[in-house]
Design brief:
The chain is an alpha+beta fold and 408 residues long. 36% of the residues lie in helices and 30% in strands. The chain folds into two domains: 226 residues, FAD/NAD(P)-binding domain, CATH 3.50.50; 119 residues, 2-Layer Sandwich (D-Amino Acid Oxidase, Chain A, domain 2), CATH 3.30.9. It has twelve helices and 20 strands. The strands form three sheets. Strands 5, 6, 12, 13, 14, 15, 16, 17 and 20 form a nine-stranded mixed β-sheet that branches. Bound molecules: flavin-adenine dinucleotide.
């Protein structure tokens, strides 16, 4: 059996699903192929991950009427506290604070749990007549046939499309099938991630402490709840995550250093290994990469999904405009517009997270001094602070229309 589509998207995580939705709403015939079951995609159980979404991501989600549906579940962040030191109870003298009033009083970022975003996007996809959403299916092959791309599924179904998109996360098999190599490194770090309920209010504050093993982030959620991303050496993370609940809470409580009063687990914790992997190329013949399959970065700045959403905004604008002009949407010159637009942003964000992790996860004496100096420079420079916050908003540079909340 063979079906013909305009676009075949491999991987229906948040990034692949958003691309499918935008293209489908703009009249392109899309097949979205996901290996998980519909039940698993729709479950209320979640992996404890929450996203720090920036203003640009909010703009795109608003344009798709997703923000309206999730806004009750969104926690705004009005202050970020950065500290560093050898242990949380004894921070080094200088701390850096970022406030919302330093960027026009708009929230610095927005916290949203993975499950609420995922479920809302899923509902929209299922309602869009132009999207054929295939679940419990894996892609087993992709090749160029008669000038188009053919995708073969595990049930031997074949789909012919003008262009295929790899959105299957890290490590990406679709990228390997297209013979695109990654550059990067294994950090030998992992993040323990979960949500706690706590006695004290969080006052819309996010907190990040740079420890020698990796950063600890405590991020506010709706209610007296916070999500934590606790990064350390992989062996230690596995050991801590295996502790029974009371011992785990004791260790976590020490890391929280009584910042939120008494804490209780709201979700089981989960361990995510941390790797840097950047695709050497974003496009090949009739094929493009987006999201974590194109760039898997350190969560130190909470930017992975924001970066993937920027890919979606750029690629959808390129493909929709090409279609309107009567161009072949899978042609190399069309896909190269996307890679030219994205290369600099992806590389600079990957380098930024990599260097920040290197500087802050090293115990060397000189780096400790350098860290103290860099904190002091940022602390004393309101302009630098405003610049950093504007950069993190995703609205600097050549911003695609959807991120500005405009129509393509
Ligand atoms: C600890 C941690 C904290 C983070 N915090 C933040 C944050 O605060 N802010 C932020 O912006 N980002 C954050 N990130 C990054 C963010 O989680 C990722 O960038 C984002 O989830 C990537 O989405 P994706 O859709 O590209 O990939 P994925 O979520 O990995 O989705 C890929 C999909 O493809 C499917 N798939 C895989 N193989 C196949 C196949 N062969 N056939 C069909 N389907 C397939 C998978 O089932 C999956 O559904 C964090 C990451 C971690 C690890």
């Amino acid at each position: 059996m063979q079906e013909k589509k305009d676009v075949a998207i491999v991987g229906g995580g948040i990034v692949g699903s958003l691309l499918a939705l935008i293209l489908g709403l703009n009249g392109l015939r899309v097949v979205l192929i996901e290996k998980q079951t519909l039940h698993d995609l729709n479950t209320d159980l979640y992996d404890g991950r929450s996203y720090a979404l920036n203003a640009a991501s909010k703009g795109l989600l608003s344009k798709l009427n997703i923000w309206e549906e999730v806004k009750e579940k969104v926690q705004t962040v009005s202050k970020i506290i950065l500290q560093q030191g050898l242990d949380v109870a004894h921070p080094q003298p200088f701390e850096v604070n970022f406030f919302d009033y330093e960027i026009d009083n708009s929230p610095i970022f927005y916290m949203l749990e993975d499950r609420f975003l995922r479920q809302t996007i899923l509902r929209k996809i299922r309602e869009c007549p132009k999207i054929n959403h295939l679940t419990s299916k894996t892609v087993q092959g992709q090749k160029i046939v008669d000038g188009l791309i053919e995708i073969t599924l595990n049930d031997r179904r074949r789909i012919i499309a003008e262009v295929a998109i790899g959105a299957d996360g890290f490590p990406s098999k679709s990228s390997a099938r297209a013979k695109i190599k990654n550059i990067g490194r294994n950090y030998k770090q992992s993040s323990i991630v979960g949500v706690v309920r706590h006695a004290l209010p969080h006052n819309n504050e996010a907190f990040q402490f740079f420890l020698p093993g990796g950063p600890l982030a405590i991020l506010p959620l709706v209610g007296n709840r916070s999500c934590y991303v606790w990064t350390m050496g992989t062996d230690e993370a596995k050991k801590i995550n295996k502790l029974d609940e009371s011992l785990f809470l004791e260790r976590l409580g020490k890391a929280f250093n009584d910042r939120r009063g008494e804490i209780q687990l709201d979700t089981p914790s989960k361990v995510f290994p941390i790797t840097l992997a950047i695709a050497e190329k974003l496009v090949k013949e009739r094929f493009a990469l987006i999201g974590d399959s194109a760039h898997n970065i350190h969560p130190i700045a909470g930017q992975g999904l924001n970066l993937g959403i920027r890919d979606v905004a750029c690629l959808s604008e390129v493909l929709i405009l090409a279609r309107r002009c009567g161009e072949d949407i899978g042609a190399t010159n069309v896909l190269k517009r996307y890679s030219r637009w994205r290369n600099y942003d992806i590389l600079s964000m990957s380098l930024f997270t990599d260097i920040t992790n290197k500087i802050f996860s090293d115990n060397g004496f000189l780096l400790q001094i350098a860290r103290g100096f860099s904190f002091d420079i940022v602390r004393k420079s309101p302009r630098l602070k405003t610049y950093l916050m504007k950069e993190a908003s995703g609205l600097n540079g050549d911003v695609p229309k959807l991120l500005q909340g405009k129509h393509i």
